[in-house]
Design goal:
- This is Amino acid permease.
- Keywords: Membrane, Transmembrane, Transmembrane helix.
- The protein has three domains: about 5-160, no CATH class; about 190-325, Rossmann fold, CATH 3.40.50; about 355-450, Beta Barrel (OB fold (Dihydrolipoamide Acetyltransferase, E2P)).
- The strands form two sheets. It has a five-stranded parallel beta sheet with strand order 3-2-1-4-5, sandwiched between helices.
- The chain is built from 13 helices and eleven strands.
- The chain is of the alpha/beta class and about 450 residues long.
- The chain is extended, with a radius of gyration of 31 Å.
- Helix 8 (about 255-270) packs parallel to helix 10 (about 295-305).
Length: about 450
């Protein structure tokens, strides 16, 4: 089109570059918009809560990763064919148009604001036309990939509605707890069971933790599936001179979680008795952990948590660190894994900009936190890193931690400040410092929010 000369070559290159930029911008739009949209839907409890979490760079990292995975899957399924991707795009776009049209139709029917009939006709027509287009694409392109959307979309709607029902049920239970606050349980007897399958480092750590709970009774329990294994465990228990009694319970049906639940229920059924079940878990490097971990402890904890007056606690133990204390030479697999972990930490690490944001440099008209002394009236400017509500019989106060580039300082605000301040806010605080619990505290100071550029 542009010819074979120098001008034609330049124009052809500019056309290709412009096309690539247009495609890049179009693709980038999805990665900008989908994570935000997914976070809004997740806040309404129709998507997993993980999509509401922001990453180190204050973006919705999980949404970006999900969209990336879905994009790769679509490219693999269609072989990167534009003809194969067009049905997915068209059905997705026009389905959104149809949902928006029907949503606005319902809005007009409910609100009936001035001129609502005209707006109702426009939005209902748009919804119907978009639905017709979706139907045409679904039929015409069914064998070219549209069948996947037709099959997956109803299943996805069902799954998301089921997820929403679970979240709403959980919220209803929390509301019930709020109406009837939980009181601390005072048990006359507190039994602690450590559920063991072998005598190893994780079990020893769980036994040590069990002793620190200071229960009235500490017992190790093994559910016997293999008699020879149980006998070896008893011999090993004696060899290690573990003073905690080992109780072996026959489990002929091999349903360990059910046996654990029955044991805990029997112990908790006694009047005035609370039960804690400790489940040791060994932690390895990520690659070894994927091979060596099973989910027996999770299943047992889930079954035990259903018993009244009982609690299950999984006690993790880092086997790798203990091995390195005795055997400093590490195998090649661990060295490679640690190199990858260090690289990932560097990628997700704290950037100078992030550190400057979280620990701002104090302005010239404020006192650096490290230079605050007890008995002096000071003005400090910093980021509110932490905020907690302390309730006592006498009064209720907000206790916050203010940080700048030099250090941190505790600040005690009145309860009414809850409406004015929030975590992450930059504050200018003026008050008299006093010493309490070995640190400095500003009690009920004057405060105001500070704009990010103020005092820079």
């Amino acid at each position: 089109v542009f010819g074979q000369g120098m001008v034609g070559t330049v124009l052809f290159g500019m056309l290709q570059l412009a096309s690539a930029l247009i495609l890049y911008t179009g693709a980038n739009t999805s990665f900008n918009g989908f994570p935000f949209l997914a976070s809004f839907v997740a806040e309404d409890r129709f998507l997993p809560r993980q999509l509401t979490k922001r990453g180190h760079r204050l973006v919705f990292s999980n949404g970006i990763l999900v969209l990336t995975a879905l994009s790769v899957v679509l490219l693999v399924l269609t072989g990167g064919s534009v003809n194969g991707l067009v049905p997915f795009y068209a059905i997705g776009v026009f389905t959104g148009f149809a949902i928006a049209g029907y949503g606005m139709t319902r809005h007009h029917l409910r609100e009936k604001e001035p001129g609502w009939r005209h707006k109702l006709a426009v939005n209902l027509s748009a919804g119907v036309l978009a639905t017709v287009v979706v139907g045409i694409f679904a039929v015409a392109k069914f064998t070219e990939g549209a069948w996947l959307v037709v099959v997956v979309f109803p299943l996805l709607v069902f799954v998301l509605m089921r997820l929403n029902r679970e979240y709403r049920a959980e919220a209803a239970i929390l509301d019930r707890v709020r109406e009837h606050p939980l009181d601390a349980a005072n048990y006359a007897h507190h039994k602690v069971f450590v559920l063991v399958n072998s005598a190893d480092l994780a079990v020893l750590e769980a036994l040590r933790y069990g002793r620190n709970l200071r229960g009235t009774d500490l017992t190790a329990v093994h559910f016997m599936i293999d008699r020879m294994h149980a006998e070896r465990l008893e011999r090993r228990w004696d060899e290690l001179r573990i003073r905690v009694p080992l109780r072996v319970i026959d489990c002929p049906d091999r349903r360990v979680a059910r046996a654990a639940q029955k044991l805990i229920a029997e112990a908790a059924s006694r009047r005035g008795t609370g039960v804690t079940a400790l489940l040791p878990r060994r932690s390895y490097t990520p690659s070894l952990g994927w091979l060596l971990h099973d989910r027996t402890a999770d299943r047992m904890a889930r079954a035990i948590s259903q018993v009244e007056h009982a609690a299950a606690t999984i006690v993790p133990y880092d086997v790798k660190s203990k091995i390195h204390e005795v055997y400093p030479l590490r195998p090649g697999e661990e060295r490679i894994t640690e190199a990858f972990e260090r690289f990932a930490d560097q990628l997700a690490g704290e950037s100078p900009e992030q550190k400057a944001f979280e620990q701002p440099r104090p302005p010239v008209d404020a006192v650096p936190i490290t230079e605050v002394h007890a008995g002096t009236r000071v003005t400090v400017v910093g980021r509110l890193h932490e905020l907690r509500l302390n309730r006592t019989d006498a009064h209720t106060v907000l206790v916050g931690e203010l940080t700048d580039a030099t250090g941190s300082l505790r600040v005690e605000f009145p309860e009414r400040a809850r409406a004015d301040i929030e975590v992450g806010q930059r504050l200018r605080v003026t008050g008299t410092a006093e010493r309490e619990d070995g640190g400095l505290l500003l009690r009920e100071p004057r405060y105001r929010a500070v704009e990010e550029q103020e005092g820079e």
